């Protein structure tokens, strides 16, 4: 009797409870395996308890994003200044870009900037003195347009102050314009008494544009010439600025023009004047490279920087008319006359471009 009463108590004792819970858990596990909903909930709860994995994953992602931003130059974007093309940057038509394409182009430029190293020093190219001497020999005849109708010929008979202004106006009109066309425009201004800042300010813009036509972008240049004339009157007493920075502050004046004006008007050469001829020929001769690379320069400004690293300073002023005339007569943009060139045995680009409409023309190198 007493034993029968004790049996229910033994089943309900605390010592028996763990085994009961284990059995219940086992049954739940079996049902979880059969029930996908329960299994899914259980998996989620297991992840929530393992707090180290999400943090580690997030950390890896943050590091990866950081590395990608550094590779793409994102941290340097605000510090990079893309230098515009020297000769025609004031007048070059701007291509319409979408915001995404602008961002892409910006990233590409930034990456190139970041990769450039300023540690590598550029030495003078091999045989540069022989090449330069050969070009000087070919230019002795002085038969190129630049020799008689270049910007330095503007106002050659005028007093110094008036001549400086004539040189500035001639230089401002010279971009994307042949020397013959530019010289004729200067002559028309002179004939109408308009190589004077006061006279230009009093002349309406349309009349001025018609007088300098057909120089490239004559309407825009007429506007810039009037503005520059007014500044010369108000700030320089009718003379022109005598520093690079003040010349560059004039609308329509780029680095190439500023260096040319400083050399011709003020006899103060502070840098090489690089136009399209100097830029092209320097690359053909293998004289210039983008900083820290062995790749050709892509802008006149890059060419100027590269040339100034090794070319003796006493050659900085004469190199412009020398190579301009060489480019007008022998080393032309299209079909260069390599057969007539006296340095084709030293030029790495000789005969590599089509030098004649006739592909069967015999190649004759200089001895």
From TrEMBL:
One of its GO terms (cellular component) is nucleus. GO terms for biological process: base-excision repair, AP site formation; nucleotide-excision repair. Its EC number is 3.2.2.-, 4.2.99.18. One of its GO terms (molecular function) is oxidized pyrimidine nucleobase lesion DNA N-glycosylase activity. Residues 173-329 form the HhH-GPD domain. Pfam families: HHH (PF00633), HhH-GPD (PF00730). Gene3D superfamilies: Helix-hairpin-Helix base-excision DNA repair enzymes (C-terminal), Hypothetical protein, domain 2. Signal peptide: none annotated. SUPFAM superfamilies: DNA-glycosylase. It catalyses: 2'-deoxyribonucleotide-(2'-deoxyribose 5'-phosphate)-2'-deoxyribonucleotide-DNA = a 3'-end 2'-deoxyribonucleotide-(2,3-dehydro-2,3-deoxyribose 5'-phosphate)-DNA + a 5'-end 5'-phospho-2'-deoxyribonucleoside-DNA + H(+). InterPro entries: DNA_glycosylase, Endonuclease3_FeS-loop_motif, Endouclease-III_FeS-bd_BS, HhH-GPD_domain, HhH_base_excis_C, HhH_motif, NTH1. It is found in: Plastid, Chloroplast stroma, Chloroplast nucleoid. Its cofactor is [4Fe-4S] cluster. PANTHER family: ENDONUCLEASE III-LIKE PROTEIN 1 (PTHR43286:SF1). Belongs to the Nth/MutY family. Bifunctional DNA N-glycosylase with associated apurinic/apyrimidinic (AP) lyase function that catalyzes the first step in base excision repair (BER), the primary repair pathway for the repair of oxidative DNA damage. The DNA N-glycosylase activity releases the damaged DNA base from DNA by cleaving the N-glycosidic bond, leaving an AP site. The AP lyase activity cleaves the phosphodiester bond 3' to the AP site by a beta-elimination. Primarily recognizes and repairs oxidative base damage of pyrimidines. This is Endonuclease III homolog. The gene is NTH1.
């Amino acid at each position: 009797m007493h034993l029968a009463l004790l049996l229910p108590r033994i089943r309900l004792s605390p010592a028996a409870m763990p085994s009961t819970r284990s059995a219940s858990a086992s049954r739940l596990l079996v049902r979880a395996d059969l029930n996908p909903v329960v299994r899914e909930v259980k998996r989620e709860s297991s992840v929530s308890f393992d707090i180290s994995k999400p943090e580690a994953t997030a950390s890896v992602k943050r590091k990866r994003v950081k590395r990608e931003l550094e590779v793409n130059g994102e941290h340097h974007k605000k510090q990079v200044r893309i230098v515009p093309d020297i000769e025609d940057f004031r007048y070059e038509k701007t291509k319409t870009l979408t915001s995404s394409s602008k961002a892409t182009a910006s990233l590409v430029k930034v990456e190139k900037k970041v990769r450039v190293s300023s540690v590598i020093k550029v030495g003078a190219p091999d045989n540069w003195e022989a090449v330069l001497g050969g070009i000087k020999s070919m230019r002795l005849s002085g038969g190129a347009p630049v020799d008689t109708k270049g910007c330095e010929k503007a106002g050659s008979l005028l007093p110094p102050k008036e001549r400086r202004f004539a040189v500035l106006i001639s230089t401002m009109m010279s971009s994307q314009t042949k020397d013959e066309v530019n010289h004729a425009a200067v002559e028309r201004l002179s004939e109408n008494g308009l190589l004077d800042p006061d006279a230009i300010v009093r002349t309406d813009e349309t009349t001025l544009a018609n007088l300098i036509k057909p120089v490239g972008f004559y309407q825009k240049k007429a506007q810039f010439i009037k503005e520059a004339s007014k500044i010369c009157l108000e700030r320089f007493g009718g003379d022109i600025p005598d520093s690079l920075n003040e010349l560059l502050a004039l609308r329509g004046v780029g680095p190439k023009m500023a260096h040319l004006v400083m050399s011709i008007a003020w006899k103060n050469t502070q840098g090489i004047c690089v136009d399209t001829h100097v830029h092209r020929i320097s690359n053909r001769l293998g004289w210039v490279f983008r900083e820290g690379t062995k790749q050709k320069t892509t802008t006149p400004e890059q060419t100027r920087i590269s040339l100034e690293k090794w070319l003796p300073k006493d050659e900085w002023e004469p190199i412009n008319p020398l190579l301009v005339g060489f480019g007008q007569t022998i080393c032309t943009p299209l079909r260069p006359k390599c057969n007539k060139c006296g340095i084709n045995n030293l030029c790495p680009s000789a005969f590599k471009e089509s030098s004649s409409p006739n592909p069967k023309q015999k190649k004759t190198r200089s001895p």
